[in-house]
Amino acid sequence: MKCVAQEWPRVTALLFIAQTVSAMVLPNATLLEKLLEKYTDEDGEWWIAKQRGKRAITDSDMQSILDLHNKLRSQVYPPASNMEYMTWDVELERSAESWAETCLWEHGPASLLPSIGQNLGAHWGRYRPPTFHVQAWYDEVRDFTYPYPHECNPYCPFRCSGPVCTHYTQVVWATSSRIGCAINLCHNMNIWGQIWPKAVYLVCNYSPKGNWWGHAPYKHGHPCSACPPSFGGGCRENLCYREGSDRHYSPHEPEEETNEIERQRSKVQETTSQSRSRTHSPSGSVGTDDTEKNEVISTQQMSQIVSCEVRLRDQCKGTTCNRYECPAGCLDSKAKVIGSVHYEMQSSICRAAIHYGILDNDGGWVDVTRQGRKNYFIKSYRNGVQSIGKYQSANSFTVSKVAVQAITCETTVEQMCPFQKPASHCPRVYCPANCMQANPHYARVIGTRIYSDMSSICRTAVHAGVVSNQGGYVDVMPVDKRKMYIASFQNGIFSESLQNPPGGKAFRIFAVV
Question: Which residue ranges does the record assign to the LCCL domain (predicted)?
């Protein structure tokens, strides 16, 4: 995973699945009042309307978001031949409002994600209009390389030279013709392990969803030359347009296909996350209890929960691309397995693990390692699974058991699992109880969210909210070093700051739910 260093004193952020990038501004209390008087005055027009259940966003903000989307969609380069005019959708707005009110800094809810696209933004401090985030999403275009038709054989490559481009591709996805957004004020919102006292949270939902794997965001050609027949030849400012398009729509029924670029979290994870994470009412006051203010609970998992049919794809990105949790019953699935020992990327992950002998029909965890291109794949029958052969060059992967290791409160990532290229698998570790009471001189915690590999794994896990002081299982992922590690007080533990460490690496830590 390619991680981006965060400068926490700055306070504007964008969220995407598996990776994160931020557009930052410095706090300014005077300018903040301009926004807060619009969205936080409980005697004001917006709050009165909110209490009556009317709107999650002002008319002016709604129109500015919609107008900017259509303006940006109309001027893409290379030009689009099938870009559809975007309209506001009240039902999408309501679903965005429902999620914004959770104050959870992640995509959701899981039950809705298969049928909608979603972009998120948050900031506090200096006033920023909602269009600031929309423009920031679009500005990812500088790192995106459009896949021309001759490059799509049959699937289009996804080329992004920066940390993320999927905000941009969702904004300009040709068939995503409806949008609904909501804004909420979140007190003490947890943003990547930092507590923002008053975060202005923007959620935008799109339908039909974009970011389908293997597809270009739009067709290249003369504007409006490839509009769907339902538009009747209508064109407005380079966008496919039909009379009456400005009316509001209700979203279509959820689509079954799930080959999106950004993989979604499971319902199991969603339920657990919502039950453990604290949410904040937009009208609630800022707490004064230091213990509550510095409580952080994280349920982000490194293991990705998958079904028996999920295949490994080249486009998989982020921390959840090498450790998977398989369900029971995959022996009875009809999903294909291609190869033996080395498996082709279109193979079912879970059935490949059964074929190799890593798992049985009860399911469990499996580690995946990408092995590059192989010239051919051999068929075989093993452990009740018949694999098929393929005599054509393709990318491959291997499977292995997820090792488990018990450690002490003082064990560090530097000792147990140093960073390597290409990335290697670290064992799942079990932390003992009472690591909060360990000597901080021998069990240091350095950083916040991203930690120095000189840190104690178990005390870091408590600081990050991954486990309580009772201990438990955690996953760690070594990553390349950071120039700066930020100090903070979380969950009863003070972490240290560190600048320009000589040669030290870093790591992230994940829950095992």
Answer: 302-397, 403-495
Structure tokens at 173: 């996805």
- C-beta of residue 430 within 8 angstroms of C-beta of residue 472: yes
Where do the CATH 2.170.130.20 domains begin and end in the chain? 304-401, 404-511
pLDDT confidence bin for 154, thresholds 50/70/90: confident
Query: In whole angstroms, what is the distance from residue 488 CA to residue 497 CA?
Result: 8
pLDDT band at 312 (very low <50, low <70, confident <90, very high): confident
Question: Is 87 within 8 Å of 178 (Cβ atoms)?
Answer: yes
Band the pLDDT of 266: cuts 50, 70, 90. Answer: very low
Q: What amino acid is encoded at 145 in this protein? A: T
CA distances from 299 to 193, 273, 346, 508 (A): 12, 6, 29, 13
Please report, rounded to a whole number, the percentage of residues in the chain having pLDDT higher than 90.
48
**Cβ neighbours of residue 321 closer than 8 Å, sequence gap 6 or more:** 1, 18, 304, 368
Residue 228, classed as helix, strand or coil, is: coil
Half-sphere exposure of 340 (CA within 13 A, CB side): 11
Which residue type does 64 have? S
Fold annotation for 304-401: Ferric Hydroxamate Uptake Protein; Chain A, domain 1 (2.170.130)
Q: Please tell me the distance from the alpha carbon of residue 200 to that of residue 195, in angstroms, as a whole number.
A: 13
- 201: closest CA among 279, 89, 138? 279
What is the CATH number that goes with domain 54-240? 3.40.33.10
CA–CA separation, 409 vs 407, rounded Å? 7
Residues forming beta bridges with residue 369, ordered by sequence position = 398
Q: If you average pLDDT over residues 371-392, what whole number do you get?
A: 92
> Which residues make up the CATH 3.40.33.10 domain(s) of the chain?
54-240
From the list 439, 422, 418, 411, the residue with the least C-alpha distance to 507 is 418
Sort strands 342-344 and 20-21 into parallel, antiparallel or unpaired. unpaired
- State the burial class of residue 119 (Cβ atoms within 10 Å of its Cβ: 0-12, 13-18, 19+): buried
DSSP 395-433: EEEEEEE--EEE--TT-BHHHH----SS--PPPEEEEPS
* CATH superfamily to which 404-511 belongs: LCCL-like domain (2.170.130.20)
Query: Which of 183, 178, 168 lies closest to 121 in space, CA to CA?
Result: 183
What digits encode the pLDDT tens for the residues 12-46?
A: 555 443 333 333 332 333 344 444 444 444 334 44
Structure tokens at 437: 């009471």
